[in-house]
Amino acid sequence: MKIQLRYFASVREALETADETVDLPDGVATVGDVRAWLRVRGGIWADTLAEGRALRMACNHVMTDAGTCVTEDCEVAFFPPVTGG
Questions:
Q1: Whether this model's pTM surpasses 0.90
Q2: How far apart are CA 9 and CA 28, in angstroms?
Q3: Count of domains forming the chain
Q4: Which residues contact 8 (CB under 8 A, 6 or more apart)?
Q5: For the chain, percent of residues with pLDDT exceeding 90
Q6: Residue 79 burial by CB count (10 A; 0-12/13-18/19+): exposed, middle or buried?
Q7: Model confidence pLDDT, tens digit, residues 30-58
Q8: Which terminus of the chain, N or C, has fewer Cβ atoms within 10 Å?
């Protein structure tokens, strides 16, 4: 299944990429699975997307949690928590 990944703010800066299209392996079915799969890349990917790290996620422009299922051609975004003022 192919999906579009987008990275914003400090996540984008750390990973040195703004977006990419990936072909997910079997068994990667949720936003949380995508995050875990990306961590396997190691190095800065493992650190930036670490399980305990505060990170927001969206699927098709809607804020979501790790349990949200991904679908063919969806867009998953990762970004740091933001505050308003």
A1: yes
A2: 25
A3: 1
A4: 18, 77, 78, 79, 80
A5: 94
A6: middle
A7: 999 999 999 999 999 999 999 999 999 99
A8: C
